[in-house]
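Question (not urgent): is this output format expected?
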Amino acid sequence: MVMQRWTPRTPRTWSPFDEMDRLANEGFAGWPFRMMWRRLPAEDVCWAPAVEMYEKDDHFIIRAELPGMKKEDIDISVTGDTLTIKGERQASEEVSDEDYYRCEMCYGDFSRAITMPAAGDPKKIDASYEDGILEVKVLKAEEAKPKKIQIKAK
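Got this back:
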């Protein structure tokens, strides 16, 4: 039996699904399922980085988590209103597959396409990569920017 830290629940945080989640987590921690979480061959693993996107006045910001990658291994392209981030994260060659007890990190190729609410200008894209976070700034195309309409009084 595993000891778990008690966390108080208030009526605001309690959910009827809490007990189902606990039972499912305990059920999937058993022997046959534990074997599935071992290191899988690269061709069997599909992953995509977590992203966030938000809009400022005249541009979009797209941020992606890509820890352990070099900027040379990341490719960014824009087609219409779709920004695509592609790349490949390589596994360390220092550890052989037989030496692993657990490997929850994903390696291999990835591709993530993000549709923006309005078209961006492919000539005005700025990307930076720092501390495992890729940040792409896409300026909106002139026709996609909101135009202020003056109201005339009669």
